[in-house]
């Protein structure tokens, strides 16, 4: 009896010492690169990888894997180096109770550089995310390929890019750039769905300032070359911009609330709410088609609680994209912005809208299109920048999309713009037009100048004749009724009916089912 008790006691003691040993080991590894490196990270205004994960995920939801993984490099003195966790933390957790997989590169450990084991940890969590069909979030803060590990680092990146591509359109992939993301490393974020950047912290470029200086003799700072603003405003590589890491995490959480966890399901509905009482929808659009207005006010007048989560706000602002909810369900909005370049389509706005349409289509999110544009942007710059192939992307994306698609023509719908903005001909399910809609090959002024050129130039009073012809053309075409007579639009509606008609259209389309021709995949314009 006494012996039994002694055995139990010694078992307990041994387990206890093992547990204490485990805790000690964990504490050691969790220190990452150590106090000095952590201090340096803080001085740069950056959280550590672990702090980032804990700030982003639901409290107590994070579970870490591969904590004890070590690097296997042997060259350049690496054999004696200890790199805790090999510079990356991986695990699972929840955001608003929705499961996610996550990795965060730890800059305090060898600059978050990517060696073979570091890459293996990332690919392990990517495989997990794809298998479990849950979103993947990657926090990038790294000096790129670990120079001492040579081709093994390059192989690691290749394995990541392959998985990014495999997972594309199956699970949401979110990249958060919270430090350097240099060289080929930038191609993983570029292959994912949404890229988040933070002012003064994010830096993304293929070749850094020193290489640019030595090869081209050009001097530029890291911030000017690949800082957050550059990617949010100029290059279009970033979808969300914020001024602090914590603000960035709030944006990520919001995004997660709008999107489904994979392509086999829909976004979880929220409790339905009416739009806020504000400016009446019929008072937003000026009667004079030359006067601009903010199309986001129209979106907010139809969404629940008048909320709109805009994506790529500062890039190609002549088109507006983002998510809202209608009767609790997520809807993707694509809208021309008359406040910027009269809402024309150009290379950047076509890229921006085309990709968003494909995202919504891949993840079962219905699309509402609000149209008011004079067409594609003319000019040598645009032609030489490839507006033909860029502009084709939006046509391709709408034509290919099989989710419910509703269009509301608010004002101008001219030329290629009329066709491109989810027209009946690209298989919109419902097309509504306000009585202010003008659907024609081009604007009345341009049309009159071309069609009646001879009559105008030969007239005694050319300007008077020109104005007459403009009025004649306006009367004939600058309205929605010619298109309505052809059945190209389904109904001319009053502005105040807009939310109700969209909601009804969505309800009717709930079980929409159409089959596209069988193919391996299409070849979208690039
Ligand atoms: C190994 C690296 C590293 C790397 C940084 N470190 N980058 N170690 N391989 N790629 C280490 C540093 O030696 C240092 O180690 C620690 O990380 C912190 O780096 P610092 O230079 O002290 O930090 P900082 O001054 O903040 O500068 C950060 C940096 C700089 C701008 C990222 O480190 C840098 O320029 N790194 C190299 C970037 C690069 O050229 N990467 C390769 C890109 S090519 P100690 O021990 O001193 O703390 C590439 C190819 C991929 O990625 C291709 C895929 C297709």
From TrEMBL:
Ranges where the CoA carboxyltransferase C-terminal domain occurs: 276-520
GO biological process: carbon fixation; fatty acid biosynthetic process
Keyword Repeat: no
GO molecular function: acetyl-CoA carboxylase activity; propionyl-CoA carboxylase activity; transferase activity
InterPro entries named in the record: AccD/PCCB (IPR051047), AcCoA_carboxyl_beta (IPR034733), Acetyl_CoA_COase_Trfase_b_su (IPR000438), ClpP/crotonase-like_dom_sf (IPR029045), COA_CT_C (IPR011763), COA_CT_N (IPR011762)
GO CC term (a single one): acetyl-CoA carboxylase complex
Keyword annotations from UniProtKB, A to Z: Transferase
Family annotation (PANTHER family): PROPIONYL-COA CARBOXYLASE BETA CHAIN, PROPIONYL-COA CARBOXYLASE BETA CHAIN, MITOCHONDRIAL
Similarity-based family: Belongs to the AccD/PCCB family.
Name of the protein: Propionyl-CoA carboxylase beta chain
